[in-house]
Model the fold of this input.
Amino acid sequence: MRRLGSVQQKIPCVFLTDVKEEASRKREHQLFQVVATENVNPVVLEANIDCAFATEKLDGTCCYVALYQGQPYLWARLDRKPNKQAEKRFKKHQHTHKNYKDFSWNVEEDFKTVPETWIPAHRVKHHNGHPIPDQLGHIPGWVPVEKSNRQYCWHSSVVDYEVGAALVLQPTCDDEDMLEITAVPLADLQEQTLELIGTSVNGNPYGLGSKKQPVHCLVPHGSIQIRNPPPVNFQQLCSWFQESSEGRVEGIVWHCNDGTLIKIHRHHLGLRWPDGETCLADRPVVIRFEGTIDIYSSSKGLLSSFFPLNGHRFSRLQDVEYEL
Done:
C-alpha cells in the first residue's frame, strides 16, 4: 500500500475560504461557518494537484503512532488552546482587523495547561523555544494514549501494547473493492497518522457497532483511494458529492507529489454530512489475522474480540459485529 503524507496540522482547503457569521453545521456552539469560494487556492497550482493521489477524508479523530517510553505507542490529538481571557482578546482582534495577523500571543500565559507528556505536532513553528499558535489560535499536538486514562478509552480499545499491535481497517492487497479488519504491529505504523472511527466517535457516521457492542478501528490516512475524483472545479465538485456513488464521503484529501496535502469537505460547499448511506459503510469487509495469530487469543480489547472471526466476511462494513 502506498504510504502517503502524515496529517500533523490543519490541511488547507482546495478553494479560498470565507467566514460567514452564522451557526456552524459542523461544530456545536461555533457561531460562524468557514465556506469555500469558487476561487482556487494558489497552493493547489503550486502543488500540481492534477497529478495528486485523491483519497477519502474520514470522519473520526486523528491519531499518531510514535515512540513513548521506548516502545511504539498510539497518540491522541490534543490541540493546546487559549484560555478564556486570551481567546476573548484574539476574537476582538479578529473582529476589529478582520484577520488574525499581527496578534501578539504570550504562549506561557495565554494557553491552557496540557499534560507533561504532550508534544507539539511536526512543523509547528517555534519562537524562543515556545511553539507558535496557528491561524486559529491553536497549537496542534499529541498526547500518548495510556490505558489508565479513561478519556481515551476508545483509543485504548484498538491497541494492545503487550502484543504491540493495533486493530486496523484498510483495503486488501488482492481485491481493491474489499476492506479488511486486521492486526498490524505498531512498529509498522510508526510515524504514520491514522483516523480512529467507530461507535463513539463524531456521531458514528459509518454506523459501526452499537452501544452494547461498540466497534472502533484505525484507518491509515491516505489508504482509502477515490478512483475517479472530479476535477478541481466548484460546480463539478458539488455535483459529484450529490450525484456520484463515490461522492458519499465527508470529503477528499489530495496527496500531492511534493508532500502537500489539500482537502475539501461537504461543509465547505454547504452540503450535509452525513447524508444517507456512506460509501465506506457500504463496502464489503473480511476479518483477517495472519502470522503468529495465537497471541491475539489472549489479547485485550477489540483484538481478542475479532480474533475468533478470522476469515469471516461481512457484506457491508456497517454490519460488522464480533458476537455471532
User: Anything to note?
Assistant: The longest strand covers residues 33-40.
